[in-house]
Each structure stands twice: as structure tokens, then as C-alpha cells.
Specification:
alpha/beta, Rossmann fold, eight-stranded mixed β-sheet, 15 helices
Length: about 425
């Protein structure tokens, strides 16, 4: 059944040249011979401004590994909460109208939504799916409206209730809901007021990008090698949810007491605050490396003694597994987590490293110190255990094969076969 060649429309607010896992999925579908079209916006994540390279030559970003990239106008995300909400709204409105117009005359077998925040990215897929009479798959990677409350974007109960009704509208008009975490199931079900068959609620986790499929051995140019210190690397979005105040508190607690350096790579809404705090506190053991392409990460990870994942605690984040966890596991390096819930469970269950409670700066300092004092042979075993766990639970070839099967089953069901 997966040998059937499909016409797939991918709807995503975020896409190449932004570093997103959906890039990987699109490339793999193309390599398997499927015809893929991507409906997306203007690249501006995470900095908040449209990429200069895109502004200079938008035509260079109209095709990705043979997939046709259709872009719609939208407001960039900026740095403030109100601007972010307007960014979300502008994409789904533009994609539902301008996007539908640009795709007129094209036929699709299935539509696939990359549903990180905002969930409204599913609305244009539902609209276009009805016009094209094609099944819609929504890959639920964030829980709305709970995530909005958790990150402080929305506090007003009436507005949160309004968003909740919108989420219910989306879920009830979707053919398949793919859930990135087992912890999402009950939350998603409460918004499904119409009966959705169990086979249409599918556990479908993230994987690591191909760059991490083979642990790198090349020396990174981003960070000089220094075997005399224990190197902790954090990579990813630098946002409020990652709780950098607690991370810096841990770094400050260990300064002068342990030979540890912290390397933070990425960009986001907390970047300026981080730079100011590192300077104000005189944290010479913290290195801010800035944002770099995904291809540079495997070599940097290989140079790390531990990879750090952090997330503030609340009922939403406890159900979430940040995408970086899979990349860290695939890299074969020990993990450190200041995190609760599903992600902490994975760290403990895999034997890949240590975790402490979210927001526990002293706990983070303690587990960093403990791992730094662990014999190198034992740390290697942790990294190997994490990679084995990754291959067993998050293998991309297995997940892609599963997705193709779901696509084919959906097209047959739509055709009444």
C-alpha cells in the first residue's frame, strides 16, 4: 500500500529556511516519490523579522528538494505578545484565502498540518481539504489553549474559552489527529465533542533530523575544545518557557566550585535578556554562541559532555516532549533535564542521563556536578543507551512508513473502498 504515489499538501506556518522538523518530512516524502506542495508563510522564526536572504531573493525559496513552496503574505512575529497573536492570525487568514486562491486547480490526495503553535494553521487545511475533497491530518505538537496560558500569551478566561471552542471546531473537522505524546490523548479527547474513532487518534512522536542520525565526530568551529572542563550544551529556542533564569542561577551556583562551562546556542525572545544577565552577573562560565544552522549542531553536540533540556512546569508542559530530546538522544551524548513529566520519564527510562524538577536551579547544579563527576566510560554508556532508546522508539524510517500507510488508508476510505 505505501508504494502508492500521493499528491500531498503540507500546511505549515514555519518552513525552510527556518529550522523545522517539517523540512525533514517534506524531503523524505519527495525522496519516496510523492508529489509534495507546501503552503507556508514568510520565514521569520525565531528572530521575529523576515529573513534578509528571503527579502533579497524570494525566488530562491520557491522549491525545496523538488517540493513546490507556495508562500502567503503575513505579519512577522516581532518580539511582543500582541504582535505574536497578530502573526498567528495573519497566517491562517492569509493561507485560508490567498493560499486557497493560489492552489486553485490543483488536486491533492491528502493534507498534512504541522501543528506547532498556532493550532490555527489547521484552519486553512480544513478549508482547502473541503474544497479539494481530501482527508486532513493534523500533527498536534502543542496543546491549545493551554499552551497560550502556560507561556503567558493569554490570561483572560473568556479569551481562553473562545480559543478552546476554536480548537474543538478544528479537532472535530479533522480526519486524523496525530499526537506527539501519549500525554496528549486525554486533553485532545475533551475537545472532540463529536465521536472520533480511536484509529483516527494516533500516537505519532517526533524524530531527530537526519543530521543527527549518525553521531558526529568532526570538531565544531563554534566552541573550542577544552578537555579540562565539563561542557554542557543547550541548543534551541531561547524563550520564556525554557526558564533561563533558573539555568543562569545554576551556572552561578557552580561558578568557582566546579570546572563546568555552559554553551547556549540559539535565538529567541530571551536572547537580549540572556546577554544582559550574563554580563551583569559576570558569568564567564557561560558562552552565548548565537543562532547557527542545523548542520552545525551534530559536531557541537559531539563536543559536549552533556546536552541540556529545560522547560517550565505546568500541566501542559508535563505532557510535552520537546523536539530537542529526540535530537539529543540520537546524538549519543548524556542528557541533563530540568524538566517534569513525559520528557523526564524518557530521560530516566532510557538511562541516558539525569533529570531534576522544573525550576529547580539547585537541583540542576547538583545533577550537573554529579554527571561531571561520573567516570567517562559510564557517561559513554549513558549516551549509547540514549541512542538505542531513540532507535527503538523514535526511528524516522518506521514513523515515515507508518505515516505513508495512514495516508493510503485515508485515501481509500475517502474513495469508499
Amino acid at each position: 500500500m505505501p508504494d502508492k504515489k500521493l499528491r500531498v499538501l503540507v500546511v505549515t506556518q514555519y518552513f525552510w529556511p527556518e529550522n523545522m522538523r517539517i523540512n525533514d518530512l517534506v524531503r523524505d516524502l519527495r525522496e519516496k516519490g510523492h508529489e509534495v506542495t507546501v503552503l507556508t508563510g514568510l520565514p521569520n522564526y525565531p528572530e521575529g523579522d523576515v529573513f534578509a536572504s528571503y527579502r533579497a531573493s524570494p525566488g530562491d525559496f520557491a522549491s525545496y528538494h523538488g517540493a513546490d513552496v507556495v508562500r502567503v503574505p503575513m505579519l512577522s512575529r516581532g518580539k511582543r505578545s500582541l504582535r505574536l497573536i497578530m502573526n498567528y492570525a495573519s497566517f491562517f487568514l492569509s493561507a485560508s484565502t490567498v493560499g486557497a486562491f493560489k492552489l486553485r486547480g490543483r488536486k491533492f490526495d491528502v493534507l498534512f498540518v504541522y501543528a506547532v503553535s498556532p493550532i490555527m494553521a489547521a484552519i486553512p487545511a480544513i478549508v482547502i481539504g473541503r474544497l479539494k475533497q481530501a482527508p486532513v491530518f493534523v500533527w498536534v505538537l502543542d496543546l491549545w489553549p493551554e499552551t497560550l496560558r502556560a507561556v503567558g500569551v493569554l490570561h483572560n478566561p473568556r479569551l481562553l474559552s473562545l480559543v478552546g471552542r476554536m480548537v474543538s471546531w478544528i479537532y472535530n473537522r479533522t480526519d486524523y489527529l496525530l499526537l506527539q505524546s501519549h500525554g496528549f490523548l486525554e486533553n485532545v479527547k475533551q475537545y472532540c465533542t463529536r465521536h472520533i474513532a480511536d484509529e483516527r487518534l494516533v500516537y505519532f512522536p517526533s524524530w531527530a533530523e537526519d543530521d543527527f542520525s549518525v553521531p558526529g565526530t568532526v570538531t565544531s568551529s563554534l566552541l573550542e575544545s577544552d578537555p579540562s572542563v565539563f561542557t554542557v550544551v543547550f541548543a534551541g529556542n531561547l524563550g520564556e518557557a525554557q526558564d533561563f533564569p533558573a539555568v543562569l542561577d545554576a551556572a552561578e551556583a557552580l561558578r568557582g566550585e566546579a570546572s563546568v562551562r555552559w554553551a547556549i546556542v540559539g535565538d529567541g525572545r530571551m536572547s537580549t535578556w540572556l546577554a544582559e544577565q550574563v554580563q551583569a552577573r559576570g558569568l564567564d562560565n557561560v558562552r552565548l554562541l548565537g543562532r547557527h544552522p542545523l548542520e552545525a549542531m551534530p559536531a557541537l553536540f559531539a563536543q559536549a559532555d552533556a546536552l541540556l533540556v529545560t522547560l517550565k512546569t505546568n500541566d501542559v508542559f508535563q505532557k510535552t516532549i520537546p523536539g530537542k530530546v529526540q535530537a539529543y538522544l540520537a546524538s549519543g551524548r548524556p542528557l541533563l533535564g530540568m524538566i517534569n513529566g513525559e520528557a523526564a520519564r524518557v530521560i530516566h527510562e532510557s538511562g541516558a542521563g539525569f533529570a531534576c524538577d522544573s525550576g529547580d536551579a539547585q537541583g540542576l547544579a547538583r545533577i550537573v556536578s554529579d554527571l561531571a563527576g561520573t567516570p567517562s566510560a559510564q557517561r559513554r554508556q549513558m549516551g549509547e543507551a540514549g541512542r538505542e532508546y531513540y532507535l527503538e522508539h523514535y526511528s524516522k524510517p518506521k514513523l515515515m512508513a507508518r505515516l505513508e500507510t495512514l495516508f493510503c488508508e485515508a485515501t481509500l476510505r475517502k474513495a469508499g473502498k
